[in-house]
TrEMBL record:
CDD domains: Ribosomal_L29_HIP. The gene is rpmC. GO terms for cellular component: ribonucleoprotein complex; ribosome. It comes from Hydromonas duriensis. The keyword Ribosomal protein applies. Keywords: Ribonucleoprotein, Ribosomal protein. It holds the Pfam family Ribosomal_L29. One of its GO terms (biological process) is translation. Transmembrane segments: none annotated. This is Large ribosomal subunit protein uL29. GO terms for molecular function: structural constituent of ribosome. InterPro entries: Ribosomal_uL29, Ribosomal_uL29_sf. Belongs to the universal ribosomal protein uL29 family.
Length: 64
């Protein structure tokens, strides 16, 4: 997910995106703990997407 795509979304859409990413991160962590995770790089991508969404949410909150 790119930052440009996130900038066009409103805060409600960003909140739902964040909750979906957090659920994905939890599932990936559980798969890693059970040694079922094939691609460990997915965790890194999801973690960075979470950071992007939170950054955009902070920027939008600061503008108001």
């Amino acid at each position: 997910m790119s930052a440009k795509e996130l900038m066009t979304k409103d805060t409600a859409a960003l909140q739902t995106e964040l909750s979906a990413l957090l659920k994905t991160q939890f599932n990936l962590r559980m798969q890693r703990a059970m040694q079922q995770l094939a691609d460990v790089n997915q965790l890194k991508k999801v973690r960075r997407d979470i950071a992007r969404v939170r950054t955009i949410m902070h920027q939008k909150a600061g503008q108001k």
